[in-house]
Amino acid sequence: MTTSTQASSAPTKTVVLGVTGCIAAYKSAEIVRALQKAGVRVKVIMTEHATHFVDPVTFRALTHEKVAIGLFDDPTDPIHHISLAQEADVMLLAPCTANMLAKVANGIADDLLSTTVLATTAPIVVAPAMNVHMYENPATRYNIGKLQIRGVHFVEAGTGYLACGDVGKGRLADVEDIVSATLAQLGIKRDLAGKHVMITAGPTVEPIDPVRYITNRSSGKTGYAIARAAAARGADVTLISGPVALQAPEGVSMVYVQTADEMLAAAEEAFESADIGIFAAAVADMKPAHSADHKLKKGADDSELSGIELVENPDILETLGAKKGDRVVVGFAAETDNVLENAQKKLIAKHADVIVANQVGEGMAFGTDDNEVWFLDHEETEALPLMSKARLADAILSKSLDFLL
Length: 405
Ligand code: PMT
Description:
alpha/beta; binds ligand PMT; nine-stranded mixed β-sheet
């Protein structure tokens, strides 16, 4: 079993993050990571003053993009502020100093960041951070009021001990609040923030000998889509994956396994701290009683391959469902016949809150990009239309939330 946290998949939305000269500038690195975890591309503009607090290399390494600082820094792009302004789906200023606030409020454009803000038509989110007296100064309050009237979204500064030694309002707001406010402008929900979601995905592989194994056609697309969607909605995600040819979703803790026994061990551990368990894996129901340490011989008389003894694998969903406590448990049912009848039996036998039932067979569910499923709970059955596995993932998470206490 191996574990890791990795990156992947092309983001479709861009946040241009403006970092200004403030002690809280180091927190912008956390903001970058959290936005990326939600599947967003981040490009960073720093003011000259900001570079005294954090080296641009930090943001370049995190974003894999050039970090823009001066108006004339990029010889390949003579109108850099316009291209950055157009690339932004949201413009975020975090931390935003009193000086930058004043410039933006009054339409002053005398550096790359303030010029880009003036040139953008994207929604603007501002997270101010400064000394308490600067924050309470009527000039700053007036500037904030002016920007609010113009539709700029503010993430209020927090109260507490400030780097200058004063105590009061002026601390940069929590990273999670800044990220939520930014994602809200992109239409991305954060309703799983603070929750731990455990997901099983893909097939398991049960070795017969060093070259042969029992497995099935699961591609892992469904489980990976759920993991990606859960991370984007703010969850801490553990994805326990059988062998698949997919990249790990951004910001998800990966546990790679081969066999059902390994998947059970990993799931038992992750389930301990999980709020929601989603069992999308196609676990092999049977495994060879003994896995040979040499390649088994075929042959008419002395075949070692005939009569391989099979035994049942542990049922991971049933085992964990039996000790679910307050956790929400979502299982799947993959059926060729009597889909709803069989799914209903699994709902009860496996102690699930919800079963996602799908018909499987030639060209259906396994390996496809779309799927048509039913949600069964102990009250009702709902038929969902054919949809992408990405959309289905969101629907499964929303359904799970209905059961979270
Ligand atoms: O991975 P994709 O290519 O995207 O395909 C998606 C899928 C078809 C794999 C998925 O939609 C799906 O149906 N997953 C469950 C497959 C399955 O094993 O179904 P089942 O009816 O045999 O099992 C019922 C439930 O018990 C499932 O939640 C399964 O994860 C779980 N189970 C089954 C056997 C076992 N030994 N342990 C288990 O935990």
